[in-house]
Design a protein that fits this description.
Length: 742
């Protein structure tokens, strides 16, 4: 039976109303993607507000925690993309399985391995740090990553820290100067740098539970400046929390650190937890964790399968908001920061496509390596070694051929290639005869486990002595490696000496061949009672893909070494400040740890306590000679708002080109508070041809001479007399100049 038309009118009106309402609702959904001209801060912030308004609570909570080992959820119905992260600070890590720590087995994820950050710091070249960061960011972009989990800026407090090789040394000024261009370079590609580990994660031993007690002065003057520079000078887009506790509360969701970071410094990026560093839903919600990662794992090894909905910021967070225990404003702030990250990275319409394994990246890696290698000793001009017929060079030591990009923890890499020191030397030396033997052997590098050696060590020793006898020159290539209890994440070194019987081997070689040079492959200082047995020592770090070529460049003299140590080498372990106060200072008692040395970290300790190091911070030799002369200040008195300008001449008085790093330190005379004798406040790397001379000026803001005043909880610049020190190492000062502030 047909219904009369007039009776259909109300039904038609109702259907039309529903259609119009639906169309209006659809119209309210904002356009997620941006045009290239829509990238102003105001436009993006308004866009973020409009998106938050239409997200469900469940969608918002889902964005704040992991969905896999290295990714977080987007919002499918709106086209908001997932966020994909990758280790690490000196190369993009190989693909990891979705829900396990195994290699995913991809064949297209091999990358360029750049030198570890201790080498970058040793270059004392901020411009080069920018090129390093840009190249690394290009590789991350090509691999379709959004967040690169680095750089690390934890301060080198003790040479026993297994992870020092990932960081930028013992001085906060140097670390700050190097990290800012690195971050800017990475982020120029639309890839977020994630500075880590905030804060006080200065050892691996007991890292997941040790409670650090440190003064406010040491916190602000030593351990936080590089993070502050990353936030305020580099505008870093992400920051990673740390495993340890600080004053009784876990650092990743620490009330004090949260206030410093987001309130005092104005950080507008995301805080990403370290993997399994979250321990409380309430604290994570209140004290600034924006993206929770890795809960249910121990960071790299064991794992709880499909644990993601049980994360502290997953179902427990959702339930707490629905029950009124926590405000929805908390998740809104986290989502706002996450969306800001997304618009800076994978929804950035202006970011490029990236590049990987290209010649430019290999050149940058090689340049960083050659500028970072430090010449520590050169008796009788042992280095450089000329390539000539009739010369036999014995290369002895496992590190001559060992893969140094595997192992070490989360920073391990899968490079397209890694040129070993032996390969690099063989390819460079076409006329000399190169012979090789291992000398010693260790097990493969795996996380949290020590694998035994497979060869007979006595036989290797005997063979090494035989080979050394046949050579005109011996290059011993040893040091540490990336195995557990060496230079590796997860725990610290157990001994300060060279491991694996290397000292015995050095002594044995020196008895049969006095022309012995040592290429020290480490990310840490080591005890050196064997120094007198060598004629030359090169600190070569972990150099990545181009390691062998860079080492051969320096050994042959194709490149003149210009690196300077970014941390002090103590003669004895107890000469180091962290080890001078017993176990409560390092490694702690298993629960608590006291940074008893306070602000006197690294060279500050050696200078102030008049302890002679094996090799000082800022030290490094060259194949040529330099003179620093005509050092003068532009004034004798300054106000606290002035620029202090020191001018000097640098001359290359040797017989070849080279580069010198001139360092400027400042110390307060008769301070009313405890202070170091002097602190680094400026440096510059000066490249000069043979016979050339250059006049250079370094400017220092008088405000940077402040100390952290615990009475007012802010920075104070003292009136009175100061001394400015100019030299080429912390213990080699050319001139000391008096000036005053008022």
């Amino acid at each position: 039976m047909r219904v009369p038309y007039k009776k259909n009118i109300p039904l038609l009106i109702f259907v039309l109303f529903l259609h119009i309402s639906f169309m209006k609702a659809q119209h309210k959904i904002p356009q997620i993607q941006l045009e290239k001209n829509q990238v102003s801060t105001a436009f993006i912030e308004a866009k973020i507000d409009s998106i938050i308004a239409i997200l469900t609570l469940e969608e918002k909570v889902a964005m704040t925690h992991a969905q896999s080992k290295f990714s977080t959820k987007g919002v499918e119905r709106l086209g908001i993309p997932e966020v994909w992260m990758s280790d690490g600070p000196h190369g993009v890590r190989e693909e990891i399985s979705w829900d396990a720590w195994e290699n995913a087995g991809w064949t297209n994820d091999a990358i360029t391995a750049f030198p570890a950050l201790t080498c970058l710091a040793a270059s004392f070249n901020p411009e080069l740090a920018g090129k390093y960061g840009f190249s690394l960011g290009e590789e991350a972009r090509y691999r379709k990553k959004d967040v690169l989990l680095g750089p690390g800026v934890n301060i080198y407090r003790t040479p026993m820290n297994g992870r020092n090789f990932e960081y930028l040394g013992e001085d906060p000024f140097l670390a700050s100067a190097m990290v800012v261009p690195y971050i800017k370079g990475v982020q120029e590609n639309g890839i977020a740098a994630c500075v880590k580990h905030f804060a006080l994660n200065n050892q691996e031993h007991w890292r997941d539970k040790i409670n650090v007690e440190v003064s406010d002065r040491a916190l602000h003057e030593i351990y936080l400046p590089a993070f502050k520079a990353a936030v305020q000078k580099a505008n870093v887009w992400a920051l990673m929390g740390a495993y340890n506790k600080f004053r009784g509360q876990y650092a990743t969701h620490n009330k004090i650190l949260h206030k410093i970071l987001k309130a005092d410094w104005g950080f507008n990026g995301v805080v990403i937890s370290d993997w399994s560093s979250v321990h409380s839903t309430k604290e994570a919600a209140l004290y600034g964790v924006d993206m929770e990662m890795g809960t249910g794992t121990d960071g790299l090894g064991t794992t709880t399968n499909n644990h993601y909905q049980h994360y502290y910021l997953a179902n427990p967070f959702l339930k707490a908001i629905k029950n009124g225990e926590l405000s929805e404003d908390l998740v809104d702030d986290k989502v706002r920061r996450i969306l800001r990250l997304i618009y800076r990275t994978n929804l950035n319409p202006n970011r490029g496509l990236g590049k990987m394994n290209n010649k430019e990246h290999h050149n940058v890696a090689r340049k960083v390596a050659t500028e970072g290698i430090v010449l520590l000793k050169n008796e009788d001009n042992f280095f450089p070694i000329q390539d000539k017929k009739g010369l036999t060079i014995a290369v002895i030591g496992e590190n001559a051929t060992r893969d140094m990009t595997q192992g070490g923890g989360s920073s391990q890499l899968k490079p397209l290639f890694e040129i070993s020191p032996l390969q690099g030397i063989k390819e460079r030396y076409k006329n000399a005869t190169i012979i090789h033997t291992m000398g010693y052997e260790t097990g493969a590098s795996v996380y949290d486990e020590i694998l035994p050696a497979t060869l007979n060590q006595d036989s290797l020793y005997v063979k090494a002595i035989e080979v050394a006898k046949k050579a005109d020159i011996v290059l011993f290539i040893g040091g540490l490696n990336k195995s557990h209890h060496q230079d590796s994440e997860g725990d610290d070194r157990e001994v300060y000496d060279l491991p694996y019987g290397q000292e015995k081997l050095i002594n044995g070689i020196s008895e049969v061949n006095k022309n012995l040079g040592f290429l020290l492959v480490t990310g840490n200082a080591v005890k050196m009672p064997w120094v007198s047995k060598t004629k030359g020592i090169l600190q070569t770090w972990y150099l990545g893909s181009m390691a062998g070529h860079a080492i051969a460049d320096i050994v042959s003299g194709d490149v003149n070494p210009s690196g300077k140590l970014p941390f002090s080498f103590p003669k004895e372990l107890n000469d180091n400040a962290a080890h001078a106060f017993g176990e409560i200072s390092y490694p702690g008692d298993g629960v608590n740890q006291e940074y008893t040395e306070d602000i006197l970290v690294g060279y500050r300790w050696f200078d102030t306590r008049k302890i002679k190091p094996q090799y000082a911070f800022g030290y490094g030799m060259s194949y040529t000679d330099f003179k620093i002369t005509d050092i003068k200040l532009d004034q004798e008195k300054y106000t606290k708002n002035d620029q202090i300008k020191v001018t000097f001449n640098v001359a290359n008085t040797g017989d070849r080109e080279g580069a010198e790093v001139v360092q400027v330190y400042v110390g307060k005379h008769k301070s009313k508070v405890k202070r170091a004798l002097k602190e680094l406040k400026g440096f510059t790397k000066v490249n000069l041809e043979k016979g050339a001379e250059k006049t250079v000026t370094i400017s220092i803001d008088a405000a940077t001479l402040a100390y952290y005043n615990t009475e007012i909880l802010n920075w104070s610049v003292e009136d009175g007399t100061y001394y400015l020190y100019v030299g080429n190492a912390s213990n080699n000062i050319v001139k000391k100049i008096k000036f005053s502030l008022f």
